[in-house]
Design a protein that fits this description.
By secondary structure, this protein is of the alpha/beta class. The protein contains 10 helices and 14 strands. Strand 9 and strand 10 form a beta hairpin. Its cofactor is Mg(2+).
C-alpha cells in the first residue's frame, strides 16, 4: 500500500461536488460541433477525467455531472454511475449555457442543503498536495475561491488585493484588470450557495455570473481567497491553443516523472475508495494502451 493513501473515513463529509461540463465549446469549433469539449482528449485521457480526479483528491464522493442536453448519454457511457471508482455520480442538463452560477441552481435538489465544491469541466489542476488544503472546507461557512497569477487576466474573473492581502474587488473579464490574479474554475460554497445563486440577476453578458455570487459573499465578509502556490498548476483548456498546451504539459510531466495526471482510478485508490484488488481489475481491460500497466505498477 502506498504511504500517501488517505483513509476513506476522512471523506465522510457533508459536502457534495458539481462538475459543470455544459456549453457549446464554440471556441473549439469545428472540433466540438459533434462532440462535447469535455469528452475530447488531453493527451491520454478525456478532459473530464482531470476535474473529476481533482474532486476525488479533495474528498468528494457524491458528484453531479451537468452536461448540455445532447451530451448526457456519451458522458454516462464514459463514467457510468461512478461505482467502479467508489463514487456516486448523478447527471443533470443545463438547457443553455447561461452561466457558471446556474450550476448551483440546477444542482439544488442534488445538494440537499449541503455545501458544494463546484469545478469546471475544462479546468486542469495539478500540484504537490493540491487537495490537502481544501479538505478543511468540508464544514465551510461562507465561500472559498482560488487566485492564480496569469499573463492575460482580462479573460477571467479577476480578484484585487490590498497591500495586506485583503480582497478589495472582484470583476468578471474586465477590459482593464486591477490585478493579474485570476479566479480559477474551482469554487467552494456553504449550504446557502444554491439559494443565493437563485437570487442573482443576469449580468451584462446575459448570464448568471459566478463572479456575482462571489461578490455577494465578499459583501457579507464571508469570502476566503487562497492564492495558489508556485508548486501548483492551473490550466484552462477552452481554446485550441490552451488545449494543445495542456496536452503538452501532461505529456512532459508523465514521460519525465513516470506519474499520471488526472488518472481517476489512481485518485480513487489513493483516496481509499477502492482497494488493490479492485484497481487490478480496472487495469486488466486497459493493458493494451499502457494505461493499465501504469495502474498495475501502483500496486505491484
Amino acid at each position: 500500500m502506498a504511504p500517501d493513501r488517505i483513509p476513506a473515513d476522512q471523506y465522510a463529509a457533508p459536502m457534495r461536488g458539481i462538475l459543470l461540463a455544459g456549453g457549446t465549446g464554440s471556441r473549439l469549433w469545428p472540433m466540438t460541433r459533434s462532440v462535447s469539449k469535455q469528452l475530447m482528449p488531453i493527451y491520454d485521457k478525456p478532459m473530464i477525467f482531470y476535474p473529476l480526479s481533482t474532486l476525488i483528491s479533495i474528498g468528494i464522493r457524491e458528484i453531479l455531472v451537468i452536461t448540455a442536453p445532447a451530451d448526457q448519454d456519451p458522458f454516462a457511457r464514459l463514467l457510468g454511475d461512478g461505482s467502479q471508482w467508489g463514487l456516486r455520480l448523478s447527471y443533470a442538463v443545463q438547457p443553455r449555457p447561461d452561466g457558471i452560477a446556474q450550476a448551483l441552481v440546477i444542482g439544488e435538489d442534488f445538494l440537499g442543503g449541503r455545501g458544494c465544491a463546484l469545478i469546471l469541466g475544462d479546468n486542469l489542476f495539478h500540484g504537490m498536495n493540491f487537495g490537502s488544503w481544501a479538505r478543511s472546507d468540508m464544514e465551510l461557512s461562507g465561500a472559498h475561491v482560488l487566485a492564480c497569477p496569469v499573463a492575460r487576466p482580462s479573460a477571467y474573473g479577476v480578484v484585487e488585493f490590498d497591500a495586506d492581502g485583503r480582497v478589495l474587488t472582484l470583476e468578471e473579464k474586465p477590459a482593464r484588470p486591477r490585478s493579474r490574479y485570476a479566479v480559477p474554475g474551482l469554487y467552494f460554497y456553504d449550504s446557502e450557495g444554491a439559494k443565493i445563486a437563485k437570487s442573482l440577476p443576469r449580468g451584462a453578458r446575459g448570464e448568471f455570473e459566478i463572479t456575482a455570487l462571489n461578490e455577494y459573499y465578499l459583501r457579507e465578509r464571508s469570502l476566503r481567497v487562497t492564492v495558489m502556490d508556485r508548486g501548483s498548476v492551473w490550466l484552462d483548456t477552452g481554446t485550441v491553443a490552451d488545449l494543445a498546451r495542456a496536452a503538452e504539459y501532461v505529456r512532459v510531466v508523465e514521460e519525465r516523472q513516470g506519474v499520471k495526471i488526472g488518472c481517476v482510478e489512481e485518485a480513487a485508490w489513493r483516496a481509499g475508495l477502492i482497494d488493490d484488488a479492485h484497481l487490478r481489475r480496472l487495469a486488466e481491460p486497459l493493458l493494451s494502451s499502457g494505461y493499465g500497466d501504469y495502474l498495475l505498477r501502483l500496486v505491484d
